[in-house]
Amino acid sequence: MAEIFPSRRVRKTPFSAGVEAAGVKGYTVYNHMLLPTVFESVEFDAAHLKQHVQVWDVSCERQVSIKGPDALRLMKLISPRDMDRMADDQCYYVPAVDQNGGMLNDPVSIKLATDHYWLSLADGDLLQFALGIAISKGFDVDIVEPDVSPLGVQGPKADDLMARVFGDAVRDIRFFRYKRLAFQGQEFVVARSGWSKQGGFEIYVEGTENGMPLWDALFDAGQDLNVRAGCPNQVERVESGLLSYGSDMRRENTPIECGLGKFCNSPENYIGKSALEAQLRDGPDRMIRAVAIEGETGMCSDVWPMFADGKQVGQVASAIWSPEFQTTVAIGMVDRTHWDAGTVTEVETSNGMRRATVQKSFWR
Amino acid sequence: MAEIFPSRRVRKTPFSAGVEAAGVKGYTVYNHMLLPTVFESVEFDAAHLKQHVQVWDVSCERQVSIKGPDALRLMKLISPRDMDRMADDQCYYVPAVDQNGGMLNDPVSIKLATDHYWLSLADGDLLQFALGIAISKGFDVDIVEPDVSPLGVQGPKADDLMARVFGDAVRDIRFFRYKRLAFQGQEFVVARSGWSKQGGFEIYVEGTENGMPLWDALFDAGQDLNVRAGCPNQVERVESGLLSYGSDMRRENTPIECGLGKFCNSPENYIGKSALEAQLRDGPDRMIRAVAIEGETGMCSDVWPMFADGKQVGQVASAIWSPEFQTTVAIGMVDRTHWDAGTVTEVETSNGMRRATVQKSFWR
C-alpha cells in the first residue's frame, strides 16, 4: 500500500507527537482522524498487549455532545436501549439504527448529567443523524463535537499503571462505569472500557493541550511495567469477537444479526423499534459467528464470500492469523442454514479457497 | 508519515486495480474510501494536468440517493439554493448547513428525475443528516448510498478523450449540466464538472463491475493524448481556489464566509435560513481569501495562524508551493479588518513565520 497523505481534513490528534516518537508504522483513518494500526508488528503488538500494558491513541473515537433540556428525549429516539435504566456513572453501548433497524453506528453513550450525554463514536458522522432529528423535532439541545480525545490504557497491567497516575480509586471503577479523576489540575472522565479483552480503561481527555502531558506521565510511570504505545490490535480483537462498524456490520445489518439483540430493550418508541421487535420475534436470517479458517490466509481487507455446496452462505469481513490459537481467526456473517457450531464451509480468501469451521464462540 | 492500513471500512474502489497498476504513491481517506493523492509527484502531476488529460478515481465522492414522492420537499429543507430553478439536466452546488448556518457538507446535487436526486458528497456522512430529517418528518423517501462511483476526466484534452469513448455528444454538455451517455451497453450520467479548473467531466459509473472496463477504455483511447492516472491536485486546486470541506471550511463556517453567498437564494424555509439571511444582510466577520506566502513553506497539513501587529487575524488551512506562480499559494480565512487585497500579514508556517499578502483573487 501507499503512504497516507496528511491534511487538516485527516486530523492529527493531541497524542500524535507521542505516537510518532514511538515509531508508528501504520495508520488508518477513522472519523476524519488518524488512528495508529501497528507499531512493531501486529503479532508483536498483540503478544505484548496480552502480557503488559499499552497506551492507545483512540482520539478518533470522537464524541457527540448532546446537551440541553431535550437531551434525554433525543437519546430515547436514537437508543434501542432503555435509557431510564442507565446509572449516573454508566457507559452504555448503544447500537443506533435507522427506521428499518439498519445500523448507523454503535457508540458508547456516557451519561455526564441528566441533560448531558456523550456518544463515543465508531467510524461515521452520527452527529449528523442526531442533528437532523433535533432540528426537525425542534428539540432544545446543543449538538457539537467537543475537544475530547479518548486515550486507552489496555492490558493486564492497566490497573497498576493507572493507579500510579490517577490513584487507587481507578481500581474500584466497575466495567463500563466511570469516575471523574484528577490529573495535573484537570478532571477527566475515566471509564473501565476499551476495544480489547485484556482489561483496561479509557480516559476522555478534555483539551488538546492536556494530551501530551498525560501521555508522558503514563510512560514515565510505567517504565518497569514495560509500557508501550499500542493501538486496537487486529489479532486480539478478532480473537475476542469485538466487531468493527463498517467492516463486520453496516447499515445493511441489524443489531440482532450482530448478536446485539440484548441491547434492544427500550420501552420507548425509538427509531427502528417495530423493525427490530419483528426480528427479535421471528429471528434473524443471518448472524455474526466466529469462524476458524485453515492455515494462513493473509489479512482480510475486503469481503470474502463463504460457500457450502457451491452456494454462498455468508461472508467474512475480518480475518487474521492468530499465533496464540494457531488458526486464522475470522468474523463471519453466516446464514441461518449454516450458522450452527461445527458447520464446515469454504471461504474464498486472498490465498484461495479454504476450509472454514463455524465456532461455538469467539476465542475469549 | 506511515503507511495506510487497508480494511473493509476503508474501502477500495471499482478503479483501485487501475490506480495501483498506475503506481499510486499516496492516498488519503475520504468518505470511508481510498482517494489517491499523488502518482509521480504533486508538482509533476500538476504540470501534466495543465497540459494533457488525466483519469481520476474520485469514487470517494459518494452519492446520497434521495428518491420518492417527498424527495423535493427534503431537498428544499437541506438546500440554501432555490431548487425550483434547477433545470432537469443540472448539477447544483449545494452548501448544506445546520440551523445556525454552519456548513455540514458542500455536495453537488444532480437531478435525475423530479422525485430523484443524488448528492455527490464532500467528506462527511451527510446521508445521516438527510435520514434524520426524513425519519423525523415522516417523509416518503428512500435514502441510500447507491453503487455509483464517479470517475473524473480532467485536463485540456478531456473533451477529445471523452469524445473518443462516449461520442461527440460530450462536447455539447454545458458546465454543470449532464447527459446520459452509453458505454458498452450501460448508460452513465456524464457531467461537465470536476475538482480542477482545467476543464473536464465526471462520469457517474453505476455498477462496480463497470469500473475497470471504462478505466481501460479511456486509457486505450488516450495513448496519443498522453493520458495518465491523476487525482485532485493540491497545487492546481489551491491556485484555482477550490475549497476543501474539512480543511478550508467546516461546521464553524458559514457558506457566506466561504464566498458561497450567491448560492443562498432559496425562497423556501430551509434549515439555517434565518442565520444565513442575517449574515447576508450584515456581512460576515471573516472570509476566504487567496493568500500568497513568501518562499517555500512545505505543505500545510494543519492550521497555520495568520498575524498582524502581534494579533491573530486569520488562518491558513491549505498551502503549497506553486512552480507556475513561483510563490506559496494558500487559502486563508481572514478577518474583515485584514481581508482587503494587498494587506500584508504574517503566517506561522511549519518553516517559521513568513510574510503573506492577501490577493485580489485566486490565481485562476
From TrEMBL, chains A, B:
Residues 303-360 form the Aminomethyltransferase C-terminal domain. Gene3D superfamilies: Probable tRNA modification gtpase trme, domain 1. It comes from the Bacteria. Pfam families: GCV_T, GCV_T_C. InterPro entries: GcvT/YgfZ/DmdA, GcvT/YgfZ_C, GcvT_C, GCVT_N, TrmE/GcvT-like. Signal peptide: none annotated. Residues 22-265 form the GCVT N-terminal domain. This is Dimethylsulfoniopropionate demethylase. It comes from Aliisedimentitalea scapharcae.
